[in-house]
User: Fold this.
Amino acid sequence: MAGRYLEEKQAAALQEERMPRHVDNTQAGDEPEAEQDEAPLLAQQPSSRTGLCSARCGLALVLHVSLFVAYALRVSLSIAIVAMTNGSHPHSWSGSAPRGSYPGFSQDAPVYNWSAETQGIILSSFFYGYGLTQALGGYCSGLFGGKPVLGSGLLLSSVLTLLVPRAAELGMSFLIGLQVLLGLAEGVIFPAQYTLWAKWAPPLERSRLMNIADAGCTFGTFFALLVAGIICQSLGWPFVFYIFGGVGCAWCLCWFLLVYEDPAHHPWINAGEQEYIVSLLAHQGSSHGCSLPLVAMAKSLPLWAITIACFCTDWLFYMLLTSMPMFMSNVLHFDLRENGLLSSLPYIGNGLGHILAGLLADFLLARRVLGTAAIRKLFSALGMLLPAVFLVAVPYLGCSSTVVVVLLTLALTIISMTGAGININHIDIAPRYAGFLLGITNTFGIVAGIIAPTAVGLLVSQDLRTGWRNAFFVSAALNLFGLIFYIAFGSGTIQDWAREDTAVP
Assistant:
């Protein structure tokens, strides 16, 4: 019913919008942006009647599972390394203990004498590979299609995961190299997903479809956190990689069998839905060729607005994700081992928040309460401003550990609202280049994820409480700056350089 309602509202809105502007369709790019934002400049199309059983909803589910698997593969080593080593936890939590103090771990699995610093190097090596293939993955998916690029990246990630026990046996250098390769393989997945959605998601359904898919990331992480420890205890840590990698390889078979590059090539799609999607997205043009309008991209303020906002948001997100356990341990003296469910709450909240934000954003667009740009800015403001406020409040709460935990958990939950804001704005302003642009902004986000924990360490090393207060203030200030810049220069319409008739040949 929800899918049918949105489709009927979209068709009605398009009919109303087109009638007075029919003679000006060829000059749509010259209209003021405020007018363009009221409704996408699309031709009237028949409404699809397939609702939640549609092919596009099926793609959202398949992508949800694919990202679920990808993130389970990604975090598997972070969990298994506790059982792989006989030293302290890589983050040096106060509750950490030697290998022998974790009763129940299988005694048959090998144990390595890696220091905390060595474990940190092994875990961080993934991100060096991950950052290198973001833009490349978006570019290749535009040339060859999102389906083969994403499927190949996921398959290679699964195979490499199967090899982790052998790499660890050969030595630390082999494991680090394998993690870099795993990062290279997973780096193409997100950009390729955006290339697919540019061909499948109607403008008034983008938020919910893409956020349903993206929720697989946090649910996959949550699942891995729960299951990997059980596998280590019952079967031994190597089976974490054998099971996760094997499931990933099996799912890749489903991916290549179930997913099609666009509605025009889908053999079982309802004819009405096919016409509905293809006609609504016809104005976007085809995927880009070998050349890209790089100069125009570099001069685009709406693109810079997304990039800067993503950098600032990811700074706060990664700062919380990587440093919150250390803050709870050192400042609040919080024993995370006794509160496993509490430490996983942000993942549950973040995943559910993604889905709810997508549904609400599309509902507001369908009701024409706000235009595309206003919706993106509203949800970005909610997802960036509220977590910043919570961070500023934390240092003034003293030893009220319960309230602090609640606020930090809410911050990680509410930040998911950006999933209906800056995170999908690439497709609004340049659908032909969505995968490549996502790769660019993701690269900046990864840089923030590398710098933020380092900055926190430097600040905290001077004075514990003052350092944490300053770390929270810096993150909040960056988020506020990114939000102001995005509100000032963000857009919800296709840019001139992203139109097919003005693109680089």
In short: The two ends are 43 Å apart (CA to CA). The chain is about 70% helix and 0% strand.
